[in-house]
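Lecture notes, unit on protein representations.

Consider one protein chain, 136 amino acids long.
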Amino acid sequence: MADKDKKMKTTLRIVGEINIETLKTFLDETDEIMEEYERFKAEASMIKPELLQKFPPITVEISSYGGCTDCGSAIIHRMDEMKNMGIEVNTHCHFAYSMAFIIFVNGMKRTGDKLSKFMNDISKIKYIKNVVRVIK
């Protein structure tokens, strides 16, 4: 973050269809977070560990019916990159269908509303293919 007064965004939102625009927005927002984390790690090396504040966890809020699996897979890949860096990436669901559900499951801590809605059709297809193979 170039401006010290500007607060880092800790809540990212995936709303509506998962498509190339959703992916571009997600990548832009996470680029800023990853850059801030690199600065945090550099500064942390000069501070006693007991005085060091923890890097804030990132929450991905999901309200999506799903969409493009390529774009969703790229979002999951970016979440994994952040987790491998040491950033806690959690997910919170309002509703997550199809690809959005797979993104939701990728969170380190997964939470939802009292009446969250989920639909997982991708693994169902894999399961049906395996059953068909066993029957043959």
